[in-house]
Amino acid sequence: MKKRIAFTLLLVVALAVAVAAGLMIGAERISIFALTEQQRAILFDIRMPRVFLGACVGASLAVAGASLQALLRNPLAEPYLLGVSNGAALGTMLAFVFFESFGFARPVLAFAGAGIATFTVYQMARSRAGMNVERLVLSGVIVTTFLSSIIVLLTSVLDAARLRGFTFWLLGDLSQATYQGFYLTLAASVVGTIILTSQARGLNLMMIGERDALDFGVEVGRVRLIVFGVASLLVGTAVAASGSVGYVGLIVPHLIRLAVGSDNRLVVPFSAIAGGIFVVLADTVSRTAIAPRELPVGAITALIGAPVFIYLLRRK
Amino acid sequence: MLKVKKEKREKVIGVLLLWLALMSACSRTAPPSETVETRQITDDLSRQIDVPQHVTRAISLAPSITESIFAAGAGDRLVGVTTYCNYPAETAAIEKVGDTQTPNIERIIALKPDMVFVSTASQLEAFTQTLAEQKIAVFVSNAISLDGAVAGIRKFGEIFETSAKANATTAEIERRANALNDLLKDQTKVRVFVQISKEPLFTIGKTSFLTEAIEHAGGISVTKEVESAYPKLSKETALALNPDAIIMSDSEDNRGPNDVFKNSSAVKNGRVYKINADIISRPGPRLVDAMEQIAGFLHGEKN
Questions:
Q1: Radius of gyration of chain B measured on its C-alpha atoms
Q2: Which of A181, A174, A283, A185 has its CA nearest to residue A233?
Q3: For the purposes of burial, counting CB atoms within 10 Å of the CB of B4, is it exposed (0-12), middle (13-18) or buried (19 or more)?
């Protein structure tokens, strides 16, 4: 118990440090203690919503990854790799093309897209023999590439100039952060983490086997529906705000499991905090590495994430 | 295990050999090329290319080249252009061979051109190779400044034997550019931000031809030190740059200046200007139009 409290403290302090670092470092040099009016604008209008949004996006993606991994009994389940992020991206794009004037169309359609993609992958991966790792990953690859090709088709067919920014955005881009987007993602990540943590006991038992979980009185169907629904909500809001930031849901829960074991009552909430840390740090790199130009944050997370994926795949 | 691999390898080699045999058979049956008088031309990448004495059928794969060929007085030789080529009006009647990045090679070959003109901006190296194999002369244009555009038009005059018209056009362009220089030489330079797209925020950098064009037009690009031609710029930097004027292309992803400029002197003083996206994205004969317009924006009240 003492160890857990210490670990919680450690994560919270690390998040605070990451956020503070994110706020202090940027393309423009500013000193927090003697701000000119212009530096105030840079700090409060540009940097702060972006850093805060990054933390929420990281939390959402990591929690979605952690709970999908538990539900599907597969350490490689990840929103980006399963096509869930691409479903959300396609939804966002459709919202942008057809309902540009409705501010809420983006997250709503992103959520719908994520949900449909999740459901499709799940149906494809299921077989009479149950669900194995390779089948799930392959289904994810198929859904991902299928959705990517629709996105590419749309960008080619529709007016190119209007969707030009999308190619950059698709790789994950936090530069369009607003306080409005931050509040929405914050609400989703907090509510989502609470709901999924509340399902953690059921998930723990389902990790042993769905039959066993049923014997213990877990309503397996209900847990599955909740996890799919909430994970889609988390990924949908995250993608609508920042594009597809990949591999967060893979690396973060994995590291947390290394530290505290596989009890989902710990893995889910800890992943939220650690996901926030990871994306805030990655975005700080993307903002400053080639300043005043910027890199897409998704490229940074993938650079770290892909090797971890290979490592996990080999270890299986 | 090893044996299986070896068999596979042999199969692959077999297929390759068969393919090679077919290929050589094909080239052997190709008709001997009729002897056409050719001359040598050097393109913008300093490549020596053989072009027919009289070029009568040409295809342009970039809007700036299309405009330049028309400006050189040889628009009637164009038998194919891209879907982006919308100026001058005569381009509407010319067959379209796809867009700049993905031209349709089959249609190009079917049009039997003497020459194809491509721009370095469209990154079509592989394509150039295919056309060269078809014995079609490929001219690579690399106009990245007003001088480059002017030189390009002159060169097209040589190629199409319309030098009189081409030289008249370029003389007029140079006259206008010089007039602009004279007019603006005592004016203080206005600090300009060129917004290419609003979200994400793209602008012009060190190697864009617009950086030079802005300077010709009595301005100075605030992002002229930024690496690359069209960088995505940090919003923090954009805010700190505090430009005195903002020039935006009128494309659809560029409605209004980015929010980071809301307190900039450009927005406060209402110095936000829109300019036709075509004329500021093509290093061709209308670049001087763009410069005159920009000069009008920046120094208009004094002209």
A1: 24
A2: A185
A3: exposed
Amino acid at B67: E
Using CA atoms, how far residue A105 sits from A98, A300, B21, B296, in Å, is 9, 28, 58, 41
Closest CA to A140 of A61, A68, A66: A68
Chain A contact for B186, CB < 8 A? no
User: Would you write out chain B's pLDDT as a tens digit for each of its 303 residues?
Assistant: 444 555 666 666 666 666 655 555 554 444 445 566 889 999 998 889 899 999 999 999 999 999 999 999 999 999 999 999 999 999 999 999 988 778 888 999 999 999 999 988 766 777 788 888 888 999 999 988 899 999 999 999 999 999 999 999 999 999 999 999 999 988 899 999 999 989 889 999 999 999 999 999 999 999 999 998 899 999 999 999 999 999 998 887 788 999 999 999 999 999 999 999 999 989 999 999 999 999 999 998 644
A103, B146, B175, B277 from B290: Cα distances, Å: 36, 11, 15, 10
Q: What are phi and psi of B247, to 5 degrees?
A: -115, 125
Picking from B199, B223, B251, the nearest residue to A176 by CB comes out as B199
Radius of gyration of chain A (CA): 19
State yes or no: cis peptide before A292, omega within 30 of 0. yes
Disruptive mutation site among A23, A24, A39, A42 for chain B (greatest number of B CBs within 10 Å): A42
Residue A255 structure tokens: 């590291």
Check: CB of residue B247 under 8 Å from CB of residue B268: no
Cβ–Cβ pairs < 8 A, chains A and B: 75
Portion 202-221 of B in contact with A at CB < 8 A: 202
Residue of A nearest to B233 (CA): A293
Cα B229–Cα B232–Cα B234 angle in degrees, nearest 5:
130
Q: Which residue has the tokens 């299921």?
A: A126
At residue A228's C-alpha, the angle toward residues A89 and A226, to 5°, is 140
Its sign, for the CA torsion A311, A312, B1, B6, is negative
- Tell me the pairing of strands B190-197 and B219-221: parallel
Residue B236 to residue A164, Cβ atoms within 8 A:
no
